[in-house]
Amino acid sequence: MNLELILFILFGSVAAVTAVLMITRRNPIISALFLVVNFGSLAGLYLILNAQFIAVAQVIVYAGAIMVFFLFVIMLIKPENEQKLFSFKPQLKIFASIVVALIFLQLVYVIFFAHSATSINKEVAASVNAGTVEAIGRELFTNYVLPFEIAGYMLLAAAIGALVLAKKKFE
Predict the structure, then answer these.
(1) Residue 35 burial by CB count (10 A; 0-12/13-18/19+): exposed, middle or buried?
(2) What is the pLDDT of residues 48-84, one digit of tens each?
(3) 95-112 burial string, b = 16+ CB within 10 Å, else e?
């Protein structure tokens, strides 16, 4: 088994398990945190596919901005039902500490002991170049400029519609 297959199995199983855990939890905060883990594993799958831009956008946009918004709304809706995570299950704190230590050891290994690959075939090089920001920008503003502009106008219309509806609600 090569490294790509092992990482695919790892990220795919983490994505599947966290998706199930996200929809089966009663606490919305825990569900949102499982969704963040799911977004991270999807970003790992995108990296395996050499789609670097989509992986970074997945982490920044979804795991960052959208999840902060979700958590903000959840906190506004039910702040009195919030429970401390580690107060009822101290073994969960031990498990979290072990996971953090393992991740730290992996990072240390990658930083100090891993070596980069020296030979890349043409297919892998073409696939890596297809996922760069430069290649995506070139395609977006040459071949797909009309759909890009249409999507921009649709987002503008949606923002104006939301403002109009909000203004009517306040009056």
Answers:
(1) buried
(2) 888 888 888 888 888 888 888 877 777 776 655 556 6
(3) eeeeeeeeeeeeeeeeee
53, two tokens: 């831009």
Contact 30, 74 (CB under 8 A): no
Q: Does residue 105 register a pLDDT over 80?
A: yes
Q: Residue 35 and residue 18: Cα distance in Å, rounded? A: 7
The single-letter DSSP state of residue 81 is G
pTM higher than 0.85, yes or no? Answer: no
Q: How many helices (H) and strands (E) does the chain have?
A: 9, 0
Identity of the amino acid at 151: A
